[in-house]
Amino acid sequence: MTGPALLSVEDVSVNLPTPRGNLRAVDRVDLSVGAGRTLGIVGESGCGKTMLSRAILQLLPKKAMLSGRVMFDGQDLVRLDRERLRKLRGRSLAVVFQDPMTSLNPVLTIGTQLIETLQEHLELDGVAAKMRSIELLAAVGIPAPEQRLMQYPHQLSGGMRQRVAIAIALSCEPKLLIADEPTTALDVTIQAQILDLLAREQRRRHMAMIIITHDLGVVAGRTDEVAVMYAGRVVERAPTPDLFKRMRMPYTEALLAAIPKIDAKPHTPLPAISGRPPDPTRPLKGCSFSPRCRYAWAQCQIEKPPLADADSPGHQYACFRPLNTAVGAPA
Amino acid sequence: MMQPVSQPVSGDPLLRVENLVVEYPVGNKTVHAVSGVSLDIARGETLGLVGESGCGKSTLGRAVMQLRRPVSGKVLFDGKDLTAMQGDTLRRMRRRVQLIFQDPIASLNPRRRIGDIIAEPLVIAGVKDAKKREQLVHDVLAAVGLDPQLVIGRLPHEFSGGQCQRICIARALVLNPEFIICDEPVSALDVSIRAQILNLLEEMKARYGLTLLFIAHDLAVVKAVSDRVAVMYLGRLCEVGPSEQLFAQPAHPYTALLIEAIPVPDPDVRPAESVAVGEPPSPIAPPSGCRFRTRCPRADQRCSDEMPELREVAPAQFAACHHPLIGAA
Predict the structure, then answer these.
(1) What is the CATH number of domain A5-230?
(2) How far is the C-alpha of A29 from the C-alpha of A39, rounded, in Å?
(3) How far does CA B14 lie from the centroid of its chain?
(4) Percent of chain A with pLDDT over 70
(5) How far is residue B183's CA from residue A221's CA, in Å, rounded to a whole number?
(6) pTM of the model
(7) What digits encode the pLDDT tens for the residues A45-55?
(8) Domain, as residue range, for B238
(9) Chain B residues with CB inside 8 Å of A243's CB?
(10) Residue A178: what are its φ and ψ, rounded to 5°?
(11) Is residue B239 part of a domain?
(12) B263: which chain A residues are within 8 Å (Cβ-Cβ)?
């Protein structure tokens, strides 16, 4: 990572009390993103990636217990009072969620929602806010923006709604944009358009971005760094090219192998990962991935592997039997 | 209207769809969900059907089952026209055709035990012997990789999405059908679980001698399981062909666009910048001529005047385009 981090997540854990006992959703995560950089957080449902993003935004459920620090632009968000936090969110810290139908208010027009954000955070007057809204909608590729201002979310397609949500998120020139599964609900052709749009706006605004996804394909060409999460922990973290070329964590390898390849022959059996992730209310003593790991040996069941440095810069992994290494190379 | 397309099929097709038209009324307008689709599926074949949301692929699947009655056209299953059947005759026929849906949790009744859910098709089919039903349920659960003893007495909420999809597959298989329509069976599942379910479907296909119509929006998933692929856009077929050939040399610009839009998990492959232009128009007022022309880089006057028919552009590969990417125009 070059330059000082804009956001650094330091030793963050999130615990949720449930009827079945304590659920450790995020387990001692450290991450950072510099200005103008893109971090991808990859993992399957239930791995804690969304809880981590909510911990950054301080939008955790009421009962959740958070520990650690979230340093953003020199202040610790965990210790910030509600009013200052509210000012920060939407202004310097913006978010785009997976489902634009639920993140937009269905009974307000697109215009009202955009103009409200601009007036609230930038203290623009009505006319200026309206002008700016039209510019923003045009910038995210919405045709006839002036007419769209009068429309309600249900009158737009899923892709258009996501563009509106992005326009709202970008409206106050945020320093950091968190995109939580921004294209999961969309078709492939629209997915490509939305990811292009995010990348273009990021470059233009020199904004930092976190893309949260379950699809390694989405992060491959579009991020500087990737963190892979499993059962609440970051299990591998590396600059994107390094991660794909020299992955160490067997889980990352398995995740990549399980994706159907477009150049594979039809009816090729897929290397599936057997079993499923562990119950988060019943944490394992050893490595959480060990029951599903084809390389696991005795030590993996007894002890939790720490997140250790690999020999390439910025690359870390949590595994006793890493891939692509001479020492302890999997048989 | 379109001629039924002759397609590379060995022997009689198990399913033949001829000029199928399905429309929905919306207020005083009409949604043209499926507009004259013809296709054949051979016995033992898997035909993949891809397209974006709203292209009519699920409606097509439902119309095959007669869950949505088509406006016109024929659905010949094993030579018999399902559209002409009603009541008991249709119900008996339907035992040979089963459906698997996208959301496995929503398609299981949350208040019924797994054993009862899977036995229900047998009860409806008139298998009166409880012992026999129990045995069949037992066998099919074991076949889909679940432990019958542990599963039968439980409720759906006790299972994960992947396990629920296994249960749905078991329910579809229990009547020993010949044909299964899989409507986005893995879209709701995580990558690691998705591979398990795709492998299971392939295994079950071999074991039970099934023919599959595999509907999905993810081309890589479709390619992984299909012998042939049909690409649908706004109610019409754009292209049909053998999977590998279609991916290696797409003829229809829309197929090419779909292939380019797939994110590749390789950082050296730079994503192609904005390959896709715009969004599909409304199926209430589809464009004249070729329905893809409003997003097509090759479109000209002819494309708006004249609807392209499916024609053979390469051996066994058919495309409905005036300006195909391969073959003579």
Answers:
(1) 3.40.50.300
(2) 14
(3) 15
(4) 97
(5) 30
(6) 0.88
(7) 889 998 999 99
(8) 13-96+220-319
(9) 267
(10) -105, 120
(11) yes
(12) 188, 191-192, 195, 215, 217-218, 220-221
